[in-house]
């Protein structure tokens, strides 16, 4: 994977493009997905007592949330057969269902908005690289 600065730049640009898909809509599903991912990441970081101590160079909660949003939408665009199913609801993060809904219902619009964005690169983003990067 690329270095973190390049990865975060790709994540931010991809999320902005995704957000604009829904800008003229009465509901911005990309922003809803982002908020869900943000809640999940805050909850995860709050689970242990010393997240910041053990991950001093971690990307921000907002950047990690954006990364999960674009990663999941890209994964589902690449492999629709991996969409979560109802039986997964109790075991998956809720943002997975949000992302699958966006990928399923707005496939054409998202692919158009992302243009030449490398979907495989978005799908390959590694959480550990973002929260435990090597010191530069």
Features:
single chain; 136 residues; globular; mainly alpha; 8 helices
Q: What does this molecule look like?
A:
- By secondary structure, the protein is mainly alpha-helical.
- The protein has one domain.
- The chain is built from eight helices and no strands.
- It has helices spanning 4-21, 29-47, 51-54, 61-78, 94-105, 107-114, 119-123, 127-131.
Fold topology:
Layout: H1 4-21, H2 29-47, H3 51-54, H4 61-78, H5 94-105, H6 107-114, H7 119-123, H8 127-131
Structure in a nutshell:
The protein is mainly α. The chain contains 8 helices and no strands.
**What proportion of the residues form beta strands (DSSP E)?**
under 5%
Rg from alpha-carbon coordinates: 15 Å
**Portion of residues in helices?**
55-70%
* Number of H- or I-type helical stretches: 8
Inertia-based shape: globular
Average pLDDT across residues?
Answer: 91
Major sheet characteristics: none
Query: What's the order of the H and E elements?
Result: HHHHHHHH
By helix and strand content, what is the structural category?
mainly alpha
Beta strand count:
0
- Given as residue ranges, the uncertain stretches (5+ residues, pLDDT < 50) are none
Indicate how many domains the architecture comprises: 1
Distance between the termini: 15 Å
């Amino acid at each position: 994977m690329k270095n973190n600065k390049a990865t975060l730049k790709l994540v931010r640009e991809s999320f902005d493009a995704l957000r604009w898909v829904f800008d003229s809509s009465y509901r911005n599903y990309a922003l809803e997905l982002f908020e869900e991912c943000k809640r999940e990441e805050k909850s995860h970081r709050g689970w242990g007592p010393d997240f910041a101590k053990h991950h001093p160079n971690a990307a921000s909660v907002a950047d990690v949330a954006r990364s999960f949003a674009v990663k999941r939408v890209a994964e589902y665009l690449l492999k629709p057969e991996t969409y979560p199913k109802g039986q997964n609801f109790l075991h998956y993060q809720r943002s997975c269902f949000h992302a699958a809904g966006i990928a399923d219902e707005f496939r054409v619009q998202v692919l158009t908005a992302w243009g030449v964005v490398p979907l495989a690169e978005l799908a390959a983003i590694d959480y550990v690289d973002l929260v435990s990067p090597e010191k530069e």
